[in-house]
Amino acid sequence: MSDIPTDGKRRPRTISDIARLAGVHAGTVSRALANNPLVNAETRARIQALADEHGFRPNQMASSLRTQKTNVVGVVVPLGHERRQHLSDPFFMTILGHLADELTEGGYDIMLSRVIPDAHDWLERIVDSGMLDGVLLIGQSDQFDAIERVAARYRPLVVWGDHVDGQRHCAVGVDNRLGGVLAGRRLIERGCRQLAFFGEIRTLELTHRYEGLKQAAREAGIAEPFQCDTHLASDVMAAEISSHLNRLSGKIDGIAAASDVIAMRSVRVLADHGLAVPSDIPVVGFDDLPLASQIIPRLTTIRQDVQRGASEMIRALFARMDGIDAPSVIMEPELASRDSA
Questions:
Q1: Measuring CA to CA, which residue among 303, 216, 306, 308 is closest to residue 254?
Q2: How many CB atoms lie within 10 A of CB 279?
């Protein structure tokens, strides 16, 4: 595209060109185009109108080099434990929507990555890329040690996940162990005595959910719940649930699922096996996604406030970008009592 308009005059290409037209210093133009209140409102408006008139846009790369800011936040989903899971998973879609809303309202663009962490330094490559002002991780996956290693030197990193005493990285999430306890108590109140946990235990969050379920069983003096590996990948989930039901036929009378997605699929597979929910086998989910209250039967589940959690992640990230070591946030789970249990 030519820089010479049809009237023969050269189009302003730099801040210095606009400064000459406006009769001010280049620094004044830079601040005015950034809407900096140090430039009085009348001068700001005049310079911005002049830039608009000539179709001038500041060089964002040059601005980034000057300010050492990119105005981009990385939102990263590490899938070391569940490589076939996709970003279309309803939980990811829910939390990503809330994060995107708040980040864009805060003036930041988003770089979204789904990462299979095969390389030892996968997270270092992200935080050291020079492309991001901060990083949000959705889940710890099986990468707790890698996250801890990077958090020891990289401050603007916040993780959706669980918290253990002494960890370095800032995590925002629900008390997953208590959530497991609440799920177990609900099933036991319904008369269940042989519980099963449908979910894997290779991640901190889901391990704690299972531990909470075991705690509820101990409190009630019943047998330890069966742990049934159930992947979050949609292409294998139904077959795995069906296999568990065949293997444990007559041995379980209540299911605590590691997620709402697993719980909803379990309801469907139970129906395929001729079993009704909740009369034959009650089912409790975990998350309280929007779909949980819309399926039939409506899903009894453990609610984690994803919208609040996303806000807490953004608040902590912005604080850390400003040099403040915001601490982890552990939210209280709640039982959302509906029809499935």
A1: 216
A2: 8
Task: Provide CB contacts within 8 A for 220, sequence distance 6+.
Answer: 184, 185, 188
pLDDT tens-digit map of 14-41: 788 888 889 998 778 877 887 777 788 8
Measured CA distances, 184 to 68, 238, 335 (Å): 50, 23, 11
Question: What's the predicted TM-score (pTM) here?
Answer: 0.79
- Tokens at residue 142, please? 């099986």
Mean pLDDT of 87-95: 90
Q: Which domains does the chain have, with CATH numbers?
A: 15-67 (1.10.260.40), 72-174+306-331 (3.40.50.2300), 176-303 (3.40.50.2300)
d(CA 205, CA 29): 50
The sheet carrying 334-336 orders its strands as 226-228, 195-198, 254-257, 283-287, 300-303, 334-336
User: Nearest 5°: phi and psi at 284?
Assistant: -120, 130
